[in-house]
Amino acid sequence: MDLDPAGMKPVLNRLRRAQGQLTAVIRMIEEGKDCTSVVTQLAAVSSALDRAGFAIIADTLEKCVKQDEPELDRAQLEKLFLSLA
Questions:
Q1: DSSP character for 27?
Q2: Gyration radius (Cα) of the chain, Å
Q3: Are 9 and 52 in contact (CB under 8 A)?
Q4: What is the mean pLDDT of the chain?
């Protein structure tokens, strides 16, 4: 199933924001910032990536239900979803 670029705009925005956060984390480490701040920002990046992944899966599930796509069964969807955990 192909992703709709127009429908993925919020996901792309979230991923770009995560990319900026990750760049900031790298800079913080290079500058020797305290570990609490680094870990806090790293957790924010991880959370943003998780939310992007969940949004993609939700979109995929919705399309599968609407289109009744037989080649993507429940076990495959569950495996995809759990790959983010």
A1: H
A2: 16
A3: no
A4: 84
* pLDDT for the residue 6: 81
Q: Is it the case that residue 66 has pLDDT exceeding 80?
A: no
Q: CA 29 to CA 47: how far, in whole Å?
A: 19
**Residue appearing with tokens 């969807």:** 77
Taking the model in full, what pTM does it have? 0.73
CB 44 within 8 A of CB 57: no
- Taking every pair of C-alpha atoms in the chain, what is the biggest distance, in angstroms? 52
What is the spatial distance between Cα 37 and Cα 64, in angstroms, rounded to a whole number?
41
Backbone angles phi, psi at 84, to 5 degrees: -85, -15
* Mean pLDDT, residues 47-75 taken together: 76
Output the six-digit token pair for 36: 């609490």
Rounded Cα gap, residues 66 and 63, in angstroms: 5
What is the pLDDT, as a whole number, of residue 65?
63
